[in-house]
Design goal:
The complex is a heterodimer of chains A (753) and B (365). Chain A has 753 residues and is an alpha+beta fold. Chain A folds into three domains: 425 residues, no CATH class; 105 residues, no CATH class; 181 residues, no CATH class. Chain A contains 23 helices and 18 strands. The longest helix of chain A has 44 residues. Chain B is built from two helices and 23 strands. Chain B is globular. The chains are: A alpha+beta (753), B mainly beta (365).
């Protein structure tokens, strides 16, 4: 029998241990593969949905007449890159389809593809061939002509205007994707910890075999070599099933996601990934080799020095403080991520140390021998299960952070959409038309009893005097200041800000302007509008979600008569009145047959659906990590406690009732898991803070609000209790079985005897 | 002529892409079908050319093209090659006298594709455009002659033999802009290939209607890299239509149109197939009647290549004492569109000297 086959013989005698080991490895591989797929899919889905709703330009006829195929042909024959976009609301349907001509789109895409448009198949979800769309019995149909404005001059009969399905999410989407990437790296770290604990477990389980081999003259180095070979062999067996399982998992989640996405604007926004098994396989093999080779990569002297340095928790604290300082002071993202890694390493090292110190202090303080034994056993558990415990702690922290992040993002998106799209419709005032005419008409014809709400927005430029320097700011003048703005969420405000704004007693400033010039509610600003100087108090600061320009919001009455209005619009929620009645009347008053009207409700619906589903994926991804960490702790706690049964049997020999022993075991398991959860809280809060308050400002120059959700903390504590309970119940079964001797992790020479 | 292979690939693309299941089902058997089983008319020996109608579109046929190559010279004496082709691919047959569908329905009974390329000093500029038919965005009219897709256009002027060809890509002053604007002076009558215009494409009788204008004088301007180049030279114009595709086993197409300095013209092609190639051609003497060349009357063999593409050929027509070498200039002349193929000018040496154009398909796959 060779040394290698002698090593493997352990699993012949204890097949369940081998199966547990393989299972953990398989699950770790499946987890990271699944997350890798979900992350890349979430990224692709988000970017594709953004591409679908991205801003485009359209051509309109100056005479206001509806566009026709003749206009398309005329402009194409003038050399313009132009494509038709036929929006059809089919009879009996609630969602629009969009007819496109992939042949005409060649000049936009660079290459023609008659079976898809913008990467989406022409199956009516929402895109279909324009001939099929035109043939549908339609309740509504409108032809738009999308143009690349850089491809030529338009004749005088046409003009170019913006065309978009939804507001550009811009940096909000980018920010979310960056956070997804950060989380993906964190998941890899947790997977590494789990694999490392699997490796150490394989050592601890076979202490007797190692001792025997050592006596037969097999060097520890050779044993380690065999162990790595064994793990690599095990990985070879579990890697592919793990990757397949991960893909299945991702596809199962993605399937549900895709079906919901199909409901979105009849749009198949979800991008299914191809056969991308190579990357997860490479990453997992590299990770496995690193995890096994860490004993050789870090010299023993250095490891011992680390252990000595951390005997009093000094090293952990040092890492934590250094990481914390780095996070606080980081001037770029790379430095920030490095600091976060330091902080997590510190927190990971500190937790077992804290629990160990706590247990030994409490053991020493206990006068009752049984209690003392209990705390000492707790200390042993914490030390021996350090890695899976840290993995659980980090998983819990991550779930906590992601919950806060995603909920914050959801709320932010919601507020952002609410702020941008507060009214049901958005109507542009045509150039040279008089907005006051519309105001008079709206005041007369939309009484409060109709439930209609509206306001007029006048845009222009003003000068803000900040410490003697003048700065141009965008002016938004609103009239009347009413319900469409008063439910905006303000970052800070003085008392009754909207009433005072309506009364002309001050202005609101946007987040960027306030941040740049350290303006707060109650401060005064010196504003010059059309040569007229005004000094007004800041009544509130409203979020701008990444818009870099400085903005000032005020009541329209405060504008000087000669203020130059660059753009004018109306936001209208028509209540019981049909919007067409309004547009027809205004069209007649302005003598402008083609008004630009945007349906904010459908835009909001579209944007909400896209983001909701992306968030769902992120939550699923973190919950998977937590499940794996919990199962890992469960399995390892079970295996490890099995090796401690010898001591528990002694309790029975000393006269403790079996129920008493079980209760001791149960309380031990519960305390360990709940301790991990409790210690995960500060790490999770720290991580949330880093994600929303540090990464975002560094990457994009604006911050998300830091919202914590204590209700969710309780849910996580409940989950930790459940894990502890499961370990305890598993151990109850073990109590009746023959006990094995205690083992020491990380030792393979048997010299401790 | 040579667009045969290209048309077959394009048709597969359009048929599968444009979702006409019945067409797709009928496609596989069509190569052997003599009458066009989906209702398309199919040319056959005995069919004759009708002018000027045959300069226009043939909606009852499945595939057709208008094609011009030109061997030009700049004022500095540098050679410049130029190609313009417009294809029509029908997805549904329509009789010549039937009413076209309403443009407002955005019909997809036919798709059009236009290619334009310029070859100069080892560089090659190429662009393609696509359009659906029956909208007015693309089309062809026999009289007054006009073929267009978007703003690319070939059309007769005040005189029916004076044509203008305009193509531009990009915006003047912007990077990548190139264009040509040519005056074409058509000399002589159309030359019918094969049997009074029916040009066989295999030994078993598949074929197309095919005629050429082989003597066209060209003057005009070609704009490349922000430089206007005044050019003059000779062009060759082809018209061809059919409803059949390549026979099973035919792998590609090698086609040549040559202006010999003797004043004679020569068209030759071969369809590569397993177990021997199908060759055909037309000898057009400076004076006298054109003579169709059958497979055994001409030899056409590649002698050297650039990668998989043979760029040096030997062409022999023993009956006319022709034994010439055809050489493409250095460079890559692949038209890198939806269906890549080689399109380059060639120089002629050997028993005769001259210049011409070469199109090679089926080497990319």
């Amino acid at each position: 029998m060779t040394a290698f086959s002698a090593l493997l013989s352990h699993y012949r005698r204890h097949p369940w241990q081998g199966i547990a080991l393989a299972l953990l490895m398989l699950m770790a591989t499946a987890l990271w593969t699944g997350i890798y797929h979900l992350t890349s899919q979430a990224r692709a889905s988000l970017s594709q949905s953004e591409r679908v709703v991205e801003a485009r330009y359209q051509v309109q006829r100056v005479d206001g007449a509806a566009l026709s195929v003749e206009d398309f042909v005329t402009l194409r024959r003038q050399g313009l890159c132009l494509m038709p976009w036929l929006e059809v609301l089919p009879e009996g349907e609630s969602r629009r389809v969009i007819g496109v001509d992939p042949l005409a789109a060649l000049c936009f895409q660079g290459q023609a593809d008659v079976v898809s448009f913008d990467g989406q198949p022409l199956r009516g979800d929402p895109f279909m061939d324009i001939a099929d769309a035109a043939a549908l019995p339609a309740r509504q149909a409108q032809l738009f002509l999308i143009v690349d404005p850089d491809t030529g001059e338009l004749s005088a009969d046409y003009r170019i205007t913006d065309f978009s399905l939804a507001p550009d999410t811009g940096q909000l989407g980018d920010s979310f994707l960056l956070n997804l990437d950060a989380l993906s790296v964190l998941v890899l770290l947790i997977t590494g910890l789990l694999l490392r604990s699997v490796y150490l477990l394989s050592l601890s389980q076979r202490r007797d075999s190692f001792a025997l081999l050592h006596r037969f003259g097999v060097s520890p180095r050779r044993v380690r070599g065999h162990l790595v070979a064994e793990l690599v062999g095990l990985a070879a067996l579990t890697l592919m099933p793990g990757i397949l399982l991960g893909q299945l998992l991702a596809n199962a989640l993605a399937g549900g996601f895709a079906s919901v996405m199909e409901g979105l604007f009849d749009s198949r926004q979800f991008v299914t990934s191809g056969n991308s098994w190579l990357m997860p396989a490479l990453v997992m093999v590299t990770l496995l080799l690193l995890v096994c080779a860490v004993d050789w990569l870090i010299p023993e002297k250095l490891r011992k020095a680390f252990a000595v340095a951390n005997r009093s928790g000094g090293l952990s604290l040092l890492l934590l403080v250094a990481g914390g300082a780095g996070v606080w002071l980081a001037a770029n993202l790379l430095f920030l991520f490095g600091s976060v890694a330091l902080m997590l390493a510190g927190a990971g090292l500190l937790m077992p140390w804290c629990l160990s110190v706590l247990s030994s202090r409490l053991a020493q303080a206990s006068k009752q021998p049984f209690r003392r034994w209990w705390w000492a056993e707790f200390g042993v558990l914490c030390r021996r299960l350090a890695l899976p415990l840290v993995a659980l702690q980090l998983s819990l922290a991550m779930v906590l952070a992601v919950q806060a992040l995603v909920t914050t993002f959801e709320a932010t998106f919601d507020h952002w959409l609410g702020q941008r799209l507060s009214a049901d419709y958005y109507l542009e005032v045509p150039t040279d038309a008089d907005g006051q005419v519309a105001v008079d008409w709206l005041e007369q014809n939309l009484p409060e009893s109709s439930g209609a709400i509206w306001h007029r927005v006048l845009r222009g430029q003003g000068q803000l005097d900040v410490s003697g320097h003048e700065q141009s700011v965008d002016i938004f003048a609103v009239a009347p200041v009413g319900a469409l703005v008063s439910d905006w969420r303000l970052i800070e405000s003085a008392g009754q800000p909207w009433q005072r704004l309506a009364a002309g007693q001050g202005v609101m400033v946007n987040e960027q302007l306030a941040y740049r010039h350290e303006l707060a509610a109650g401060d005064s600003v010196q504003l010059t509008l059309a040569g007229q100087s005004l000094r007004l108090p800041v009544l509130g600061v409203y979020p701008d979600y990444g818009r870099p320009a400085g903005e000032i919001l005020l009541a329209a009455d405060q504008l000087p008569d000669d203020f130059s209005v660059s753009f004018e619009s109306f936001s209208i929620s028509p209540g019981e009145v049909d919007i067409e009645v309004i547009t027809e009347a205004l069209s007649a008053l302005w003598q402008e047959p083609a008004l630009t009207l945007r349906d904010n409700r459908s835009i909001r619906d579209l944007a909400n659906r896209v983001f909701e589903q992306t968030f769902m994926l992120t939550r699923a991804m973190t919950m998977l990590t937590l499940v794996l960490a919990a199962v890992a702790l469960l399995l390892m706690g079970w295996v490890f406690l099995s090796t401690r049964l010898w001591y528990f049997r002694l309790l029975a020999v000393w006269g403790t009732a079996r129920t008493g022993i079980f209760l001791s075991l149960l309380t031990l398991a519960l305390t360990v898991s709940v301790s991990a959860a409790a210690l995960a809280l500060p790490v999770g809060i720290g991580l949330t803070w880093v994600l929303v308050q540090r990464i975002n400002p560094l990457a994009f120059g604006w911050s998300l609000p830091l919202d914590l959700y204590p209700g969710f903390w309780l849910e996580l504590l409940g989950l930790a209790l459940l894990i502890g309970l499961c370990i305890g119940l598993l151990m109850r079964r073990q109590l009746g079985r023959p006990a094995v001797r205690p083992s020491v992790t990380g030792t393979i020479t048997g010299g401790e005897r | 002529m040579r667009c045969w292979w290209l048309s077959m690939v394009a048709m597969v693309w359009l048929v599968t892409g444009c979702s006409k299941p019945d067409s797709e089902a009928g496609f596989a058997g069509l190569a052997d079908s003599r009458d066009g089983s989906l209702g398309f008319e199919q040319p056959a020996p005995g069919d004759v050319l009708v002018f000027p109608e045959d300069f226009g579109a043939h909606p009852a046929h499945r595939i057709e093209w208008w094609y011009l190559t030109a061997n030009l010279e700049t004022e500095a004496g540098d050679p410049l090659g130029l190609q313009w082709t417009q294809f029509r691919q029908a997805l549904e047959p329509r009789s010549t006298d039937a009413t076209p569908p309403e443009p407002s329905a955005w019909p997809m009974q036919a798709a059009w594709m236009a290619h334009a390329a310029v070859s100069h000093q080892g560089q090659h500029w190429f662009q393609e455009r696509l359009a659906r038919g029956d909208l007015g965005q693309a089309g062809a009219i026999a009289e007054p002659f006009e073929v267009w897709l978007d703003h690319w256009r070939m059309a007769a002027g005040d005189h029916p033999n004076q044509w203008q060809l305009t193509v531009s890509q990009g915006q003047p002053g912007q990077q990548g802009y190139w264009a040509f604007d040519l005056e074409l002076s058509v000399k002589g009558l159309p030359v019918a290939h094969g049997d009074q215009g029916f040009s066989a494409k295999s030994a078993s009788g598949e074929g197309s209607m095919y005629f050429s204008l082989v003597d066209i004088e060209v003057t005009g301007t070609v704009t490349l890299a922000d430089k206007d180049l005044n050019v003059q030279g000779k062009a060759w114009f082809d018209r061809e239509w059919s409803s059949q595709f390549l026979k099973a086993g035919q792998q590609g197409w090698d086609w040549f149109a040559l202006h010999l300095d003797s004043g004679d013209k020569l068209m030759a092609f071969r369809l590569r197939e397993e177990g021997g190639h199908f060759r055909s051609g037309t000898w057009i003497p400076r004076s006298g009647e054109p003579r169709a060349l059958s497979s055994d009357q001409l030899q056409l063999k590649p002698t050297a290549g650039s990668g998989p593409v043979p760029t040096r050929w030997r062409l022999q027509v023993p009956g006319q004492d022709v034994d010439i070498e055809l050489v493409a200039p250095e460079g890559n002349y692949t038209n890198d569109g939806l269906f890549p193929y080689w399109e380059s000018p060639v120089s002629v040496s050997g028993s005769h000297s001259g210049a011409g154009y070469m199109e090679l398909t089926g080497y990319n796959n």
